[in-house]
Every structure is written in structure tokens, then in C-alpha cells.
Amino acid sequence: MEGHPLALHDVMFIPALVAQASDEQNKKWLRRAQRREIVGCYAQTELGHGSNLRKLETTATYDVSTQEFVLHTPQITSLKWWPGGLGKSSNYAVVVANMIVKEKHLGPHSFLVQLRDEITHQSLKGITVGDIGPKLSFNAIDNGFLGFDNYRIPRTNLLMRHSRVEPDGTYVKPPHAKINYSAMVRVRSHMATGQGNFLAQALTIAVRYSTVRRQGFIESGEQEVKVLDYQTQQHRLFPSIAKAYAFTFAGYETIRLYEQLLKEVDTGNVSLMADLHALTSGLKSVVTHQTAQGIEQARMACGGHGYSQASYISEIFGVAVGGCTYEGENMVMLLQLARYLVKSVEQIKAGESGKLGPLVAYLAVKVDGVDLEKGVEEYMKAFQHVSRLQTWKASEKFLKLLKSGEKREVAWNKSSVELTRASRLHTRLYIAETFKRSVQEVADPRLKEVLTDLLHLHVNYELLDMATYALEDGFLSSSQLDYVRDQLYFYLAKIRPNAVSLVDSWEFSDMQLRSVLGRRDGNVYENLVAWAKASPLNKTDVLPSVEKYLKPMMNSKL
Ligand SMILES: CCCCC/C=C\C/C=C\C/C=C\CCCCC(=O)SCCNC(=O)CCNC(=O)[C@H](O)C(C)(C)COP(=O)(O)OP(=O)(O)OC[C@H]1O[C@@H](n2cnc3c(N)ncnc32)[C@H](O)[C@@H]1OP(=O)(O)O
Ligand SMILES: Cc1cc2nc3c(=O)[nH]c(=O)nc-3n(C[C@H](O)[C@H](O)[C@H](O)COP(=O)(O)OP(=O)(O)OC[C@H]3O[C@@H](n4cnc5c(N)ncnc54)[C@H](O)[C@@H]3O)c2cc1C
């Protein structure tokens, strides 16, 4: 859970080679990387810039006389900073640098760069590398810094699957300007399942513990109730169980789309890139944010013991919440999706609705009202309505400012909170729709029934959560919202008997969870005592600090 020094080797270094190195290059490098004869990382972010890739300062200048690239970090803010596995573990890196050929700045490109000697592991001349120090979490990963002092690499170390520099310096452009960003799109495509998994771990701990913990009464009786029987506890945990499933289903779809994209790009078809970029930008943002919220609620649902490291939930939180920042800061990514949504609105206004992709086609179709009692399809229409409403509102605000003479960037900034709201609603619609579709495809009727209950819980919870948007233009009435509330409480109670099975079905072992509270056997109290006794402070009855500090203080006559 704390991460692994080789995580980025598998998650980004190898995928970057697969997607961006030519077949010929990969004959040399890929097999070695897969056999872990070389260990790599993905070095893009710098001390001064992470979000704005166009302003990366590390340069790779082509020297036609030697057919080499010269890598250089001209100032302190140009140092690579943050890459996982860079500090101590990696001897190679895929380095993203601004490529300069014949004095022309050609933007960020990826290079394979050797950092350390393959035998001694010592850093090579011209390279400064080290670890950036302790972090909120993920401390088993050596996130690092890296500087280049006019460090030379062969021309053929530019990853050349999609763009090339010929020996004479002729530049061959890629089929899509952002194709070098594929390693990021890949991780973003995988993040919904990864985050769903973090959320699932925290929920497994909290739900299991909530059936062991007894506190207070619902009806007067002999025995105190399991805290999971409180409606508030169910409301805290069960919607997140639904989300963990929903995120996983959405993630399966984006992973499949990424695989499809890779194949299509190899045949020169880049049409899916913009759609997948927009989709995964929104999805990673919403999923990471909601996961962090869900994990924190799971911790609080464990009361005081949730705050102990014995719960292990704080570690899960620390790792998961990193996802709000890495692979694109969430606001920045929501604004990427917003660009796509605004373009879609502009297309509709220009009478080109027919050209809209399937995920945004709903933006052109107005619905007057819904009958929620008819079922989940009507909820989908309600989600479409609020997303459409907010997308149009935010877009109109931006376009109006533009028309009034504001510069594009200024108009964008003044509309950006509204735009991020639109992106979130659009993404939540996508999550609900993939959840619905995935449940419909389940063959086993008993499994389908339980998952359908979760789906119902999800759509009612979500609609209530975005109710202000739906009330704003009178699309939903307050009596419809009362119905949604009643449905929500109905499904909380219906799910209660299956709650433990739902979390057990994720099949985390005790070793994976590392939680005293979430033990499969439920022996929480004995093990909490054993865990406390094993604390380093309990190794001796009297600590050395007693003689050194406490006694002089206690004996002082002052
Ligand atoms: C695989 C398993 C993973 C599971 C994970 C789960 C568990 C985790 C376990 C371990 C993982 C541990 C750590 C994770 C590693 C983290 C690694 C990193 O963080 S790597 C660094 C990531 N950095 C970023 O994400 C930077 C974010 N910034 C950007 O992406 C870009 O700067 C930008 C914001 C997108 C803007 O780019 P740029 O300035 O070049 O673009 P513009 O010129 O403004 O043009 C925008 C234009 O381009 C389109 N576009 C942008 N990106 C793409 C893309 N990727 N594909 C297609 N199109 C793209 C964009 O849509 C605009 O188009 P248009 O509106 O038409 O102009
Ligand atoms: C755990 C972890 C692992 C990482 N691993 C790697 C790795 O392996 N390789 C790698 O290269 N990098 C890695 N990173 C770096 C990471 O990708 C960046 O930190 C991330 O992309 C955010 O960029 P930033 O730090 O520049 O944030 P900033 O952009 O400085 O964000 C600061 C604030 O500014 C806001 N902001 C910035 N730009 C805009 C804008 N245009 N509009 C509106 N608001 C804006 C943001 O929303 C945020 O609130 C890692 C980071 C972490 C935390």
C-alpha cells in the first residue's frame, strides 16, 4: 500500500516504451525492461512546472554534428521533481523535455535516458539525481529530482514511434500533436479501477468493523446494536460501496478504450484521442475526489479506533488522495474536459449536432420532465438534464464574456468554476450510465439483483446530491425529491443484509488490508490490545526519558 520503488517501472516506464518507442527501439529496450535488467521511471514534472507542460524547461537540443541530443536543465526550476522511483531505484528514465532542432522549439518529446551505471548504479557524469524526501504517504516510493548538465544521448534515444528526427535534423511530425502524452492517458484510464480498489479496501475495513462494534440501542433491549444497523452508518458507507463498484465498471470501459486507441493509433487513426482524453480527464478527477471523501468517511465510521494506525485507513487515504494531484491536478483536468464540452455546445449552436460523439449527444436533446417511479432510465434522463443545464449555462457565460470583448483566456478563467461544475456533472452521468449498462449485462440473476439494489442506491444518492441543479429550473419538484429520499432509505435497509458479503466479495486478504479493525475473523479487541502492546513505547516499562527529563523536572525545587 505504501507504494513500491518499481511501481512506476511497470505503470509508466514500460507503457511509455510500448506506446512511444518504435519497434526497432523496443527490440533493444523493451525486453530488457520487462526482464527488469534495467529499471526505469517517467520523469516529466519539474520543480517549477507540472500542470503546464508547454512550459517545461528541460531542453533536448539536437547537435547535428554528432547526431546527439544535449539534455540540459538551465535553472533550479528546471530540475525534474516528483517522478516516482527516480531518486534511488531507477538507472534509466523516460525523460520528457522540450525538443529543439535547428533552433526550432518543437515542444515536449520523450527520450530514453540512462541515469546510472548498470554495474555500480552510480549516477553518471552530467547527471544530478536524488530523493525528494518524505511525503504525506507513498513513502516506500523514492520520488526523485534530476538535473542535466549538457548531458549527451544518441539521436536514436528520442522515442520515435510517432515522430522522428532524421540524422540531418529533419523533423517528422506525429499524427496528433499530443500523442506523446499517451503514458498519462494510460494511467488516467486505469485510475478509476485503481481508486475503486482503494475505496473498496477502506470500506471492507469499516463495514466488517461495524458489525463487530456494538454501541447504544435502537430499541430498548438487552444487547447493544451493531453500529452498522444505524441508518446514519449505512448512509455513510453504503453509497460508497455502490461507488466502488461503479468506478470499477467505468474503469473497465476506459481501459478497453485505451487498448483500442493504441491499436488505432498504430494504423494512423487518432480520432479517439480527443474523446478519451476528455473522458479520462473528468473521470480521474471525480473518482479520486469521491474516493478520498469515501475513505475519510469510512475512517470516521470507525470512531476513535479509526484514527489509530491499527485501522490502516489513514494509510489508504494518504495513498489514494495522491490521485487528486498526480496524473494531472484535478481542477486542471476538469478544465480539459470542459474545453471539450464547450466545443460540443458550439457545435450544437452551429447546427452540427449530428457530428457530436455518443457521450455528448445528449447535450443537444432537451427533456421536459421525468417520471422517476418508472425506474433507472428516468434517473439517467434527470442526470442528463442537470449536466446539460450546467454545461450550457457555463458555456453561455464563457461565450458571452468572449463576445463582450474579453480575451479568450480571461473569459475562460472567469467562467472556470462553473465549467468545472459542468465537467463533474457530465462525468457523474457517465459513471451512472456505465454502472447501469454493466449491471444489465450481469448474467447470474442473484448477483444481478444485489447489484441492481446498489445501482438504485447510487442513482438516488447521486440525484439527491445534485438536487439544487434539478430544482433550479423546476425540472424536479420537491415531492419528487421526497420520493428520491424515500427510495434512498429503502435501499439502505435492503442492502444491509448483504453488506458484509458485498465487501467480502472483493476478497482482500488480511495481509493486504493490514488492518486490525478489518480482520476477517472479527477478533478486533484482542488484537487491538496485542497491537498496542507491540508498540515500541511499550518495549520497556520505564522509558529513558524518565531519568533524563521527567525526574529532573519533578525534582526541581523551582
Ligand atoms: C496502470 C495502473 C495505474 C493504476 C493507478 C492506481 C494506483 C496507483 C499506483 C501507482 C501509481 C503511483 C503514482 C502515479 C504516477 C503519477 C505519474 C505522474 O503524475 S506523471 C505526470 C503527470 N502530469 C500531468 O498529468 C500534467 C497535466 N498537464 C497536461 O496533461 C497538459 O499540460 C494539459 C493540461 C493537457 C495541457 O497540455 P498542452 O499545454 O500541451 O495543451 P494545449 O496546447 O493547451 O492544448 C490543449 C489541447 O490539447 C488537447 N490535449 C491535451 N492533452 C491531450 C491528450 N492527452 N490527448 C489528446 N488531446 C489532448 C486538449 O484537449 C486541447 O484540445 P483543444 O481543446 O481541441 O484545443
Ligand atoms: C504522489 C505523486 C506522484 C507523482 N509521480 C510523478 C511521476 O512519476 N512523474 C512525474 O513526472 N510527475 C509525478 N508527479 C507530479 C504530478 O504529476 C504533478 O504534481 C501534478 O501534475 C500537478 O502539477 P503541479 O505540481 O505543477 O501543480 P500546480 O499546477 O502547481 O497546482 C497548484 C494549483 O494551481 C492550480 N492550477 C494550475 N494550473 C491551473 C490552470 N491552468 N487553471 C486553473 N488552476 C490551475 C491547480 O488546480 C492547483 O490548485 C507526482 C506527484 C505526486 C503527488
Topology:
Elements: H1 7-20, H2 23-34, E1 40-43, E2 59-63, E3 68-72, E4 80-81, E5 92-101, E6 104-114, E7 127-131, E8 144-148, E9 151-154, E10 164-165, E11 171-172, H3 182-212, H4 231-266, H5 272-300, H6 303-307, H7 313-321, H8 330-349, H9 376-403, H10 408-440, H11 445-465, H12 467-472, H13 478-495, H14 499-504, H15 510-513, H16 524-533, H17 544-555
The protein binds ligand LPK5JOUK and flavin-adenine dinucleotide (FAD).
The site of flavin-adenine dinucleotide has 21 residues, from strand 1 and helix 8.
| Small-molecule binders | ligand LPK5JOUK, flavin-adenine dinucleotide
Average the pLDDT over all residues and give the rounded result. Answer: 97
Output the CATH topology of the largest domain: Butyryl-CoA Dehydrogenase, subunit A, domain 3
**Could you tell me the strand content as a percent range?**
5-15%
Q: Roughly how much helix do the residues carry, as a percent range?
A: 40-55%
Contiguous helical run count:
17
Query: What overall geometry do the principal axes of the alpha carbons give?
Result: globular
Low-confidence parts, pLDDT < 50 over ≥5 residues? none
Task: Specify the oligomeric state.
Answer: single chain
Q: In CATH, what is the homologous superfamily of the largest domain? A: Butyryl-CoA Dehydrogenase, subunit A, domain 3
Structural class: alpha+beta
Instruction: Describe the main β-sheet briefly.
Output: 6 strands, mixed
Output the radius of gyration: 27 Å
**CATH C-level of the largest domain:** Mainly Alpha
Distance between the termini: 50 Å
Per DSSP E runs of 2 or more residues, the count of β-strands stands at 11
